[in-house]
Write the C-alpha coordinates for this entry.
Amino acid sequence: MNAETTISVDAMGGDLGPKAVVEGIGFALKRWPERQTRYLLHGDEAALAPLLAQNPKVAAVCELRHTDTMVQMSDKPSEAVRRSRGSSMWNAVQSVKTGEADAVVSSGNTGALMAISKVILRMKKGIHRPAISANWPTPKGHTVVLDVGANVQCGATQLVEFAIMGEAYHRAVFGGEHPTVGLLNVGQEELKGNDIVREADGLIRNSGLDMAYQGFIEGNDISAGIIDVVVTDGFTGNIALKTAEGTARLVAGWVREALTSSFFAKLAAGLLALGALDRLKRRMDPRYINGGVLLGLKGIVVKSHGGADGEGFASALGLAQVMAKSDFMSQIRKNLDKFASFEEQDIAAAS
Protein backbone atom coordinates (compact mmCIF):
# COMPACT_ATOMS: atom_id res chain seq x y z
CA MET A 1 0.00 0.00 0.00
CA ASN A 2 2.69 2.48 -1.07
CA ALA A 3 0.85 4.64 -3.63
CA GLU A 4 -1.17 7.47 -2.11
CA THR A 5 -4.84 6.81 -1.35
CA THR A 6 -7.40 9.60 -1.10
CA ILE A 7 -10.30 9.13 1.34
CA SER A 8 -13.29 11.48 1.23
CA VAL A 9 -14.84 12.05 4.66
CA ASP A 10 -18.25 13.31 5.73
CA ALA A 11 -16.80 15.23 8.68
CA MET A 12 -20.17 16.28 10.15
CA GLY A 13 -21.80 12.86 10.62
CA GLY A 14 -22.20 10.84 13.80
CA ASP A 15 -22.75 11.74 17.44
CA LEU A 16 -19.32 13.33 17.90
CA GLY A 17 -19.02 14.93 14.45
CA PRO A 18 -15.74 16.68 13.57
CA LYS A 19 -14.05 15.77 16.88
CA ALA A 20 -14.22 12.03 16.16
CA VAL A 21 -13.11 12.58 12.55
CA VAL A 22 -9.99 14.59 13.37
CA GLU A 23 -9.05 12.31 16.26
CA GLY A 24 -9.73 9.29 14.06
CA ILE A 25 -7.32 10.47 11.38
CA GLY A 26 -4.73 10.98 14.11
CA PHE A 27 -5.18 7.43 15.38
CA ALA A 28 -5.05 6.10 11.80
CA LEU A 29 -1.70 7.85 11.26
CA LYS A 30 -0.33 6.09 14.35
CA ARG A 31 -1.80 2.66 13.53
CA TRP A 32 -0.71 2.56 9.91
CA PRO A 33 2.25 4.94 9.48
CA GLU A 34 3.28 3.13 6.30
CA ARG A 35 0.06 3.98 4.48
CA GLN A 36 0.21 7.14 2.41
CA THR A 37 -3.28 8.58 2.72
CA ARG A 38 -4.76 11.99 1.96
CA TYR A 39 -8.14 13.08 3.31
CA LEU A 40 -10.79 15.38 1.87
CA LEU A 41 -12.80 16.69 4.84
CA HIS A 42 -16.27 17.92 3.90
CA GLY A 43 -17.88 20.05 6.58
CA ASP A 44 -18.17 23.33 8.42
CA GLU A 45 -14.83 25.17 8.37
CA ALA A 46 -15.68 26.97 11.62
CA ALA A 47 -15.95 23.63 13.42
CA LEU A 48 -13.08 21.83 11.68
CA ALA A 49 -10.37 24.49 11.38
CA PRO A 50 -9.72 24.87 15.16
CA LEU A 51 -9.46 21.09 15.56
CA LEU A 52 -6.99 20.85 12.69
CA ALA A 53 -4.96 23.72 14.14
CA GLN A 54 -4.58 21.69 17.33
CA ASN A 55 -3.45 18.63 15.34
CA PRO A 56 -0.79 19.76 12.84
CA LYS A 57 0.10 16.19 11.80
CA VAL A 58 -3.54 15.59 10.89
CA ALA A 59 -3.84 18.96 9.17
CA ALA A 60 -0.82 18.10 7.00
CA VAL A 61 -2.70 15.20 5.33
CA CYS A 62 -6.09 16.91 5.06
CA GLU A 63 -7.80 19.25 2.62
CA LEU A 64 -10.82 21.07 4.00
CA ARG A 65 -13.88 21.44 1.74
CA HIS A 66 -16.30 23.86 3.39
CA THR A 67 -20.06 23.43 3.48
CA ASP A 68 -22.44 24.76 6.09
CA THR A 69 -25.16 22.15 5.53
CA MET A 70 -25.37 18.57 6.75
CA VAL A 71 -27.71 15.59 6.75
CA GLN A 72 -29.48 15.18 10.10
CA MET A 73 -29.71 11.80 11.81
CA SER A 74 -33.50 12.20 11.84
CA ASP A 75 -33.81 12.82 8.08
CA LYS A 76 -35.70 10.22 6.08
CA PRO A 77 -33.74 8.79 3.11
CA SER A 78 -36.13 10.24 0.54
CA GLU A 79 -35.93 13.69 2.17
CA ALA A 80 -32.14 13.48 2.33
CA VAL A 81 -31.88 12.83 -1.40
CA ARG A 82 -34.12 15.80 -2.23
CA ARG A 83 -32.63 18.28 0.22
CA SER A 84 -29.00 17.25 0.75
CA ARG A 85 -27.29 18.52 -2.40
CA GLY A 86 -24.28 20.48 -1.21
CA SER A 87 -24.27 18.87 2.23
CA SER A 88 -21.16 17.30 3.76
CA MET A 89 -22.47 13.79 3.04
CA TRP A 90 -23.51 14.55 -0.55
CA ASN A 91 -20.21 16.26 -1.36
CA ALA A 92 -18.17 13.47 0.24
CA VAL A 93 -19.85 10.82 -1.92
CA GLN A 94 -19.63 13.06 -5.00
CA SER A 95 -15.83 13.13 -4.61
CA VAL A 96 -15.76 9.38 -5.29
CA LYS A 97 -18.00 9.82 -8.33
CA THR A 98 -15.72 12.46 -9.83
CA GLY A 99 -12.61 10.38 -9.16
CA GLU A 100 -11.10 12.83 -6.67
CA ALA A 101 -11.28 10.16 -3.94
CA ASP A 102 -10.86 6.40 -3.87
CA ALA A 103 -13.43 5.83 -1.10
CA VAL A 104 -15.77 7.70 1.23
CA VAL A 105 -16.38 7.29 4.98
CA SER A 106 -19.33 8.63 6.96
CA SER A 107 -20.75 8.16 10.47
CA GLY A 108 -23.98 9.84 9.44
CA ASN A 109 -27.55 8.72 8.87
CA THR A 110 -27.34 5.18 7.42
CA GLY A 111 -30.51 5.36 5.34
CA ALA A 112 -29.54 8.74 3.92
CA LEU A 113 -26.00 7.55 3.10
CA MET A 114 -27.43 4.52 1.32
CA ALA A 115 -29.93 6.58 -0.68
CA ILE A 116 -27.45 9.33 -1.61
CA SER A 117 -24.81 6.77 -2.62
CA LYS A 118 -27.30 4.94 -4.85
CA VAL A 119 -28.28 8.20 -6.57
CA ILE A 120 -24.73 9.44 -7.10
CA LEU A 121 -22.72 6.25 -7.64
CA ARG A 122 -25.45 3.93 -8.97
CA MET A 123 -25.62 0.15 -8.54
CA LYS A 124 -23.26 -2.28 -10.22
CA LYS A 125 -24.82 -4.24 -13.07
CA GLY A 126 -26.43 -7.41 -11.74
CA ILE A 127 -26.99 -6.06 -8.21
CA HIS A 128 -30.52 -5.07 -7.26
CA ARG A 129 -29.88 -3.86 -3.71
CA PRO A 130 -26.77 -2.85 -1.79
CA ALA A 131 -25.87 -4.61 1.46
CA ILE A 132 -23.94 -3.49 4.53
CA SER A 133 -21.18 -5.85 5.63
CA ALA A 134 -19.76 -6.36 9.13
CA ASN A 135 -16.44 -7.94 10.09
CA TRP A 136 -17.21 -10.33 12.94
CA PRO A 137 -14.22 -11.33 15.14
CA THR A 138 -13.74 -15.08 15.67
CA PRO A 139 -11.00 -17.31 17.13
CA LYS A 140 -9.76 -17.87 13.56
CA GLY A 141 -9.81 -14.27 12.37
CA HIS A 142 -12.93 -12.58 10.96
CA THR A 143 -16.24 -13.70 9.52
CA VAL A 144 -18.02 -11.35 7.11
CA VAL A 145 -21.75 -10.99 7.85
CA LEU A 146 -24.16 -9.32 5.45
CA ASP A 147 -26.64 -7.74 5.30
CA VAL A 148 -26.57 -6.05 8.73
CA GLY A 149 -29.17 -3.35 8.20
CA ALA A 150 -29.64 -2.05 4.67
CA ASN A 151 -32.52 -4.34 3.64
CA VAL A 152 -35.14 -5.36 6.17
CA GLN A 153 -36.81 -7.65 3.64
CA CYS A 154 -34.97 -9.61 0.95
CA GLY A 155 -35.91 -12.03 -1.79
CA ALA A 156 -33.97 -15.16 -2.64
CA THR A 157 -32.21 -13.47 -5.57
CA GLN A 158 -30.94 -10.68 -3.30
CA LEU A 159 -29.52 -13.23 -0.85
CA VAL A 160 -27.59 -14.88 -3.70
CA GLU A 161 -26.21 -11.48 -4.72
CA PHE A 162 -25.16 -10.87 -1.09
CA ALA A 163 -23.35 -14.22 -1.12
CA ILE A 164 -21.44 -13.24 -4.27
CA MET A 165 -20.49 -9.83 -2.86
CA GLY A 166 -19.59 -11.17 0.59
CA GLU A 167 -17.35 -13.89 -0.84
CA ALA A 168 -15.47 -11.42 -3.02
CA TYR A 169 -15.24 -8.92 -0.15
CA HIS A 170 -13.69 -11.52 2.16
CA ARG A 171 -11.07 -12.39 -0.44
CA ALA A 172 -10.29 -8.72 -1.04
CA VAL A 173 -9.93 -7.73 2.62
CA PHE A 174 -8.73 -10.88 4.38
CA GLY A 175 -7.12 -12.87 1.58
CA GLY A 176 -7.57 -16.57 0.91
CA GLU A 177 -8.55 -18.19 -2.34
CA HIS A 178 -11.86 -19.85 -1.46
CA PRO A 179 -13.64 -18.39 1.58
CA THR A 180 -16.54 -20.56 2.73
CA VAL A 181 -20.09 -19.21 2.47
CA GLY A 182 -23.21 -20.12 4.44
CA LEU A 183 -26.84 -19.01 4.70
CA LEU A 184 -28.02 -18.12 8.21
CA ASN A 185 -30.97 -20.27 9.21
CA VAL A 186 -32.74 -21.73 12.25
CA GLY A 187 -31.18 -25.13 11.55
CA GLN A 188 -28.82 -26.90 9.18
CA GLU A 189 -31.36 -29.38 7.77
CA GLU A 190 -32.61 -28.72 4.23
CA LEU A 191 -36.26 -28.49 5.32
CA LYS A 192 -35.59 -25.82 7.98
CA GLY A 193 -36.25 -22.12 7.46
CA ASN A 194 -38.68 -20.05 5.44
CA ASP A 195 -39.36 -20.26 1.71
CA ILE A 196 -36.97 -17.42 0.84
CA VAL A 197 -33.97 -18.98 2.57
CA ARG A 198 -34.66 -22.41 1.07
CA GLU A 199 -35.08 -20.91 -2.41
CA ALA A 200 -31.81 -19.01 -2.08
CA ASP A 201 -30.07 -22.23 -1.05
CA GLY A 202 -31.34 -23.93 -4.21
CA LEU A 203 -30.28 -21.03 -6.43
CA ILE A 204 -26.72 -21.04 -5.09
CA ARG A 205 -26.41 -24.80 -5.44
CA ASN A 206 -27.77 -24.92 -8.99
CA SER A 207 -26.36 -21.77 -10.61
CA GLY A 208 -22.77 -23.00 -11.01
CA LEU A 209 -21.18 -20.22 -8.98
CA ASP A 210 -17.45 -20.47 -8.26
CA MET A 211 -18.00 -20.50 -4.52
CA ALA A 212 -17.22 -22.75 -1.53
CA TYR A 213 -20.86 -22.87 -0.45
CA GLN A 214 -21.52 -24.83 2.76
CA GLY A 215 -25.32 -24.63 2.99
CA PHE A 216 -27.22 -23.54 6.10
CA ILE A 217 -25.52 -22.45 9.33
CA GLU A 218 -26.95 -21.41 12.70
CA GLY A 219 -26.41 -18.28 14.77
CA ASN A 220 -23.96 -19.88 17.18
CA ASP A 221 -21.72 -20.81 14.23
CA ILE A 222 -20.92 -17.16 13.42
CA SER A 223 -18.62 -16.48 16.37
CA ALA A 224 -17.14 -19.97 16.18
CA GLY A 225 -15.40 -19.00 12.95
CA ILE A 226 -16.36 -22.18 11.09
CA ILE A 227 -17.59 -20.14 8.12
CA ASP A 228 -16.00 -17.14 6.38
CA VAL A 229 -19.10 -15.43 4.97
CA VAL A 230 -22.56 -15.49 6.56
CA VAL A 231 -25.49 -14.31 4.43
CA THR A 232 -28.81 -13.11 5.83
CA ASP A 233 -31.36 -10.30 5.48
CA GLY A 234 -30.80 -6.92 7.09
CA PHE A 235 -33.44 -7.41 9.77
CA THR A 236 -31.88 -10.57 11.17
CA GLY A 237 -28.31 -9.43 10.57
CA ASN A 238 -28.75 -6.11 12.38
CA ILE A 239 -30.29 -7.79 15.43
CA ALA A 240 -27.50 -10.39 15.51
CA LEU A 241 -24.79 -7.72 15.25
CA LYS A 242 -26.17 -5.49 17.99
CA THR A 243 -26.79 -8.49 20.24
CA ALA A 244 -23.14 -9.50 19.83
CA GLU A 245 -21.93 -5.95 20.54
CA GLY A 246 -24.04 -5.80 23.68
CA THR A 247 -22.78 -9.18 24.85
CA ALA A 248 -19.16 -8.10 24.30
CA ARG A 249 -19.72 -5.01 26.44
CA LEU A 250 -21.43 -7.09 29.14
CA VAL A 251 -18.56 -9.60 29.33
CA ALA A 252 -15.99 -6.80 29.28
CA GLY A 253 -17.80 -5.19 32.21
CA TRP A 254 -17.77 -8.46 34.14
CA VAL A 255 -14.04 -8.88 33.53
CA ARG A 256 -13.37 -5.29 34.65
CA GLU A 257 -15.51 -5.79 37.77
CA ALA A 258 -13.76 -9.05 38.65
CA LEU A 259 -10.31 -7.52 38.28
CA THR A 260 -11.12 -4.51 40.49
CA SER A 261 -13.07 -6.27 43.25
CA SER A 262 -10.17 -6.52 45.74
CA PHE A 263 -6.55 -5.56 46.33
CA PHE A 264 -5.26 -8.90 45.07
CA ALA A 265 -7.53 -8.74 42.02
CA LYS A 266 -6.15 -5.30 41.21
CA LEU A 267 -2.62 -6.61 41.67
CA ALA A 268 -3.34 -9.47 39.26
CA ALA A 269 -4.90 -7.03 36.82
CA GLY A 270 -1.75 -4.91 36.99
CA LEU A 271 0.37 -7.91 36.05
CA LEU A 272 -2.02 -8.94 33.28
CA ALA A 273 -2.01 -5.40 31.92
CA LEU A 274 1.59 -5.93 30.90
CA GLY A 275 0.24 -7.65 27.81
CA ALA A 276 -2.46 -10.28 28.12
CA LEU A 277 -5.22 -8.04 29.45
CA ASP A 278 -4.52 -5.35 26.87
CA ARG A 279 -4.76 -7.91 24.06
CA LEU A 280 -8.04 -9.26 25.48
CA LYS A 281 -9.48 -5.77 25.82
CA ARG A 282 -8.56 -4.93 22.24
CA ARG A 283 -10.14 -8.13 20.86
CA MET A 284 -13.39 -7.43 22.75
CA ASP A 285 -13.57 -3.73 21.86
CA PRO A 286 -16.12 -3.11 19.04
CA ARG A 287 -14.23 0.06 18.10
CA TYR A 288 -11.46 -1.99 16.52
CA ILE A 289 -13.83 -3.67 14.06
CA ASN A 290 -15.93 -0.57 13.33
CA GLY A 291 -16.93 0.03 9.73
CA GLY A 292 -19.22 -1.65 7.26
CA VAL A 293 -18.89 -1.41 3.48
CA LEU A 294 -21.99 -0.64 1.39
CA LEU A 295 -21.51 -3.43 -1.14
CA GLY A 296 -23.00 -3.34 -4.63
CA LEU A 297 -22.34 0.29 -5.55
CA LYS A 298 -20.07 1.60 -8.31
CA GLY A 299 -17.75 3.02 -5.69
CA ILE A 300 -16.45 2.29 -2.20
CA VAL A 301 -18.60 3.64 0.63
CA VAL A 302 -17.79 2.80 4.27
CA LYS A 303 -20.34 3.39 7.03
CA SER A 304 -18.89 4.06 10.46
CA HIS A 305 -20.99 3.51 13.59
CA GLY A 306 -22.85 6.70 14.49
CA GLY A 307 -21.53 6.60 18.04
CA ALA A 308 -17.92 5.92 17.09
CA ASP A 309 -15.19 7.89 18.84
CA GLY A 310 -11.76 8.63 17.37
CA GLU A 311 -10.48 5.07 17.85
CA GLY A 312 -13.59 3.65 16.21
CA PHE A 313 -13.54 6.09 13.31
CA ALA A 314 -9.89 5.20 12.66
CA SER A 315 -10.97 1.58 12.12
CA ALA A 316 -13.47 2.68 9.49
CA LEU A 317 -10.77 4.76 7.78
CA GLY A 318 -8.44 1.75 7.80
CA LEU A 319 -11.10 -0.40 6.17
CA ALA A 320 -11.64 2.24 3.47
CA GLN A 321 -7.89 2.28 2.79
CA VAL A 322 -7.79 -1.51 2.36
CA MET A 323 -10.87 -1.54 0.12
CA ALA A 324 -9.47 1.28 -2.03
CA LYS A 325 -6.38 -0.82 -2.74
CA SER A 326 -8.26 -4.08 -3.33
CA ASP A 327 -9.62 -5.56 -6.55
CA PHE A 328 -13.06 -6.21 -5.04
CA MET A 329 -14.89 -4.47 -7.88
CA SER A 330 -13.47 -6.82 -10.49
CA GLN A 331 -13.68 -9.94 -8.30
CA ILE A 332 -17.47 -9.98 -8.09
CA ARG A 333 -17.96 -9.69 -11.87
CA LYS A 334 -17.35 -13.36 -12.74
CA ASN A 335 -19.96 -14.80 -10.38
CA LEU A 336 -22.46 -12.02 -11.13
CA ASP A 337 -22.25 -12.87 -14.82
CA LYS A 338 -22.70 -16.59 -14.07
CA PHE A 339 -25.76 -15.94 -11.94
CA ALA A 340 -27.29 -13.60 -14.53
CA SER A 341 -26.81 -16.28 -17.20
CA PHE A 342 -28.43 -18.89 -14.96
CA GLU A 343 -31.44 -16.65 -14.33
CA GLU A 344 -31.85 -15.98 -18.06
CA GLN A 345 -31.81 -19.71 -18.81
CA ASP A 346 -34.26 -20.38 -15.99
CA ILE A 347 -36.67 -17.73 -17.34
CA ALA A 348 -36.34 -19.09 -20.86
CA ALA A 349 -37.07 -22.64 -19.68
CA ALA A 350 -40.11 -21.48 -17.73
CA SER A 351 -41.57 -19.70 -20.75
